């Protein structure tokens, strides 16, 4: 998987990248993970089974996508107790403004790195 700097470089080659593509590059996630994030925005509080049905994907694949999105802090998980005993996890996408803020911070950090490399170059 390409690192964040490689992803940022690829993103710079696109004249008008879509928001989803920017998310994929900045967070280092795959298109199916981006789709999971946006579906979860539409269906907050969904379980893995509900998301799998909504996305027409296997539960194990959705579970892996959710794990990645949680690692990137784009999704939160809450445990809900069931009336008959046991529990189920419900998932919530962080609001887009929060994701945008993290994206801005990541791009700013990348830009600082690039500016530093520019300053290092010279006679």
From TrEMBL:
A Pfam family the protein falls into: TrmB
Domain of life where this protein originates: Archaea
Q: Where is the Transcription regulator TrmB N-terminal domain?
A: 24-95
In terms of InterPro entries, this protein maps to:
ArsR-like_HTH, Tscrpt_reg_TrmB_N, WH-like_DNA-bd_sf, WH_DNA-bd_sf
The record, for Gene3D superfamilies, names: Winged helix-like DNA-binding domain superfamily/Winged helix DNA-binding domain
- Can you say what this protein is called? TrmB family transcriptional regulator
């Amino acid at each position: 998987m390409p690192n964040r700097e490689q992803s940022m470089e690829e993103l710079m080659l696109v004249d008008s990248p879509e928001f989803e593509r920017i998310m994929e590059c900045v967070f280092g996630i795959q298109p199916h993970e981006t789709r999971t994030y946006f579906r979860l925005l539409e269906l907050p509080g969904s379980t893995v089974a509900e998301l799998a049905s909504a996305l027409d994907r296997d539960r194990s694949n959705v579970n892996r996508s959710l794990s990645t999105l949680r690692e990137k802090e784009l999704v939160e998980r809450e445990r809900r107790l069931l009336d008959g005993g046991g529990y189920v996890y419900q998932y919530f996408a962080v609001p887009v403004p929060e994701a945008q803020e993290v994206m801005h911070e990541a791009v700013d950090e990348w830009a600082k790195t690039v500016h530093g490399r520019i300053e290092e170059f010279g006679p």
